[in-house]
User: Which sequence fits this backbone?
């Protein structure tokens, strides 16, 4: 039970965009019951991947641009966290730039693997910059690419971390 | 992200979503979610708090193991601050002076925006680990 009501970002974004004379943002709406695929083996035997939308890239990769970029980065999960960066147009990145685990929980995942809570960490994490205006570019391009990589890497479980 | 979680789950991979924007998550309706009632930018727990980050991840794992209802969102008990006053000011437009509304996001530039200028010097221009999509 939450002690105070969550912020309604949809409502506040509507008010802000209206005051700024921006066209309204179209949030993804799915009233249909979501797909459902329960764990088919214990977590301790599962391969787990991270999918994060905080605009994370590794030094050496091309950073995100801020004009509806829907590209994807594959980040090797043995990366040193000192090599991780963020580039995102919309959120306050100060916490993430101090400690990337705020938006890319790779060290908690490593500890879960070391403790035997999960089987293995998948070889790559998948990152992009959320806030993509075109749902078509998400549905037709980004989502299928992520799905195809997860299948190729024989991932059992994906942890989705939006911002 | 909700659209992607649904696509991944539909492909036979179990997903759990973290969230700090409850209304957006509820509308996008991913299969399973854990909600952390924090300001945006620390969905997986606050900076330099490994125990807390482990707790959030453990809650996500627990959701995978125990949730039985598609579209469930579990509210985590963690609080950003003892006083919820921080919520009053986030993206607030003063109804008496809508002209004072701010957009504090970065300009929508179409060139890569590096965290540190020096990152640019390290870039492999072929970037085999970058996936770009053709504009269709």
Assistant:
């Amino acid at each position: 039970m939450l002690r105070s009501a969550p912020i309604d970002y949809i409502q506040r974004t509507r008010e802000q965009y209206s005051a700024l004379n921006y066209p309204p943002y179209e949030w993804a709406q799915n009233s249909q019951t979501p797909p459902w695929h329960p764990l088919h083996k214990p977590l301790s035997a599962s391969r787990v991947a991270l999918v994060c939308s905080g605009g994370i890239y590794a030094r050496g990769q091309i950073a995100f641009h801020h004009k509806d970029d829907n590209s994807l980065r594959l980040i090797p999960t043995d990366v040193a966290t000192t090599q991780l960066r963020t580039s995102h147009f919309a959120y306050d990145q100060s916490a993430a730039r101090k400690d990337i685990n705020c938006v890319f929980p790779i060290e908690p995942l490593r500890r879960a693997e070391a403790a035997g809570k999960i089987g293995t960490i998948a070889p790559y994490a998948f990152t992009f910059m959320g806030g993509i205006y075109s749902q078509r570019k998400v549905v037709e391009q980004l989502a299928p690419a992520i799905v195809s990589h997860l299948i190729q890497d024989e991932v059992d479980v994906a942890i989705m971390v939006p911002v | 992200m909700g659209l992607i979680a649904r696509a991944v789950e539909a492909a036979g991979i179990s997903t759990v979503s973290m969230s700090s924007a409850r209304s957006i998550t509820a509308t996008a309706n991913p299969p399973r979610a854990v909600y952390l009632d924090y300001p945006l930018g620390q969905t997986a727990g606050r900076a330099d708090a490994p125990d807390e980050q482990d707790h959030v991840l453990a809650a996500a794992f627990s959701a995978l193991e125990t949730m039985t209802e598609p579209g469930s969102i579990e509210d985590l008990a963690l609080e950003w601050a003892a006083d919820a006053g921080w919520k009053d000011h986030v993206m607030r437009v003063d109804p008496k002076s809508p002209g004072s509304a701010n957009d504090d996001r970065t300009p929508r530039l179409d060139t890569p925006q590096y965290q540190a200028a020096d990152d640019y010097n390290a870039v492999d221009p072929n970037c085999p680990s970058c996936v770009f999509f053709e504009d269709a």
In short: Strands of chain B lie at 14-19, 32-35, 72-75, 130-131. Chain B has a mean pLDDT of 93. The first strand of chain B starts at residue 14 and ends at 19. The longest helix of chain B spans residues 50-66.
